[in-house]
Amino acid sequence: TPNLSVLFAARAAGLLPLGFVGSIGEFSDTHKLREAAAHARRLGFAGALAIHPTQVSIFNEAFSPSAQELEWAHRVIVAENDAATRGLSAFSLNGRMVDPPVVRRAHEILALASDN
């Protein structure tokens, strides 16, 4: 779909992709909008543009990092710093491999939180 093309192009260019798959015309259907925003975030969108004030809080909630995500990102960065002192670019954290793309994601999450 065109929206996914925007997502991929923005990510490839190092930009934050905004939008989601579907329509936001039914802004009064908050349940449907929450589902669409959550789906967009799972796909990799970083936010969406609101066409009505009632959408703002829904988008803020859907696209903001959760407390659990922030905690994970902090743990990754601490472990990354420790690994770097040992000359490692990939390491294990809680039994999972962490490599540069995962570290970038942790930095993105922390950056999003600091922007809010």
UniProtKB/TrEMBL annotation:
Q: Which GO terms describe its molecular function?
A: lyase activity; magnesium ion binding
The cofactor named in the record is: Mg(2+)
Question: What keywords are assigned to this protein?
Answer: Lyase, Magnesium, Metal-binding
TM ranges: none
Name the InterPro entries on file: Pyrv/PenolPyrv_kinase-like_dom, Pyrv_kinase-like_dom_sf
Is Metal-binding there in the keyword field? Answer: yes
GO terms in the biological process aspect are: oxaloacetate metabolic process
Provide the protein name: Citryl-CoA lyase
The species this protein belongs to is Mesorhizobium amorphae CCNWGS0123
